[in-house]
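Board notes, transcribed. Complex of a protein with copper (II) ion.
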Amino acid sequence: MSLKTHFLTALAPIAFALPVMAEQHMQPVASALVDGQDGAIAGSVTLNDTASGSMLVTLNINGVPAGEHAVHLHETGDCSAADYKSAGGHIAGDSEHGVLSANGPHPGDMPNMTVGDDGVLKGEVFLSALEVDTIIMDDDSAAFIIHEGADDYTSQPAGDAGARIACGVFQKEG
Ligand SMILES: [Cu+2]
Ligand SMILES: [Zn+2]
């Protein structure tokens, strides 16, 4: 075997290993299929653990009415009620609602999402105070909710964001 062949043989496993290492910085840990009562809203929300410890939330939903909408993680993985009140209140921990509250925000409070005439709600959000295994995937799971209106980031308990127009229950990935 020539010296050159030895070199290539040694390099090959490294070339295959590099993309895998990159992916390990982002692991999908839970996801939710999201829909609404009118049948128009459809999409998904994915939760990824990252190397930094923050959770990366990826929103990819279509058919949402144009305008500004509050999006939150709610404490119960149950979208069975027509008004989605079955999903309970926000995942709260010891915090108050909203980034404008002195003791806020709740760990699953996210920025308002602005949707255009194409109905696309697409975005990425970092949440630093959430653990998937203990908080999202507890005994009754958790839900993602889109509200009719915007979150004022300060009203208790949920930002005065109006009706719940879409819901999705988180399931563990893998
Ligand atoms: Cu909410
Ligand atoms: Zn909240």
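The pocket of zinc ion (ligand 2) is lined by residues 72, 90, 97, 106, 109, 158 (CB under 6 Å). Residues 11-15, 17-22 have pLDDT under 50 and may be disordered.
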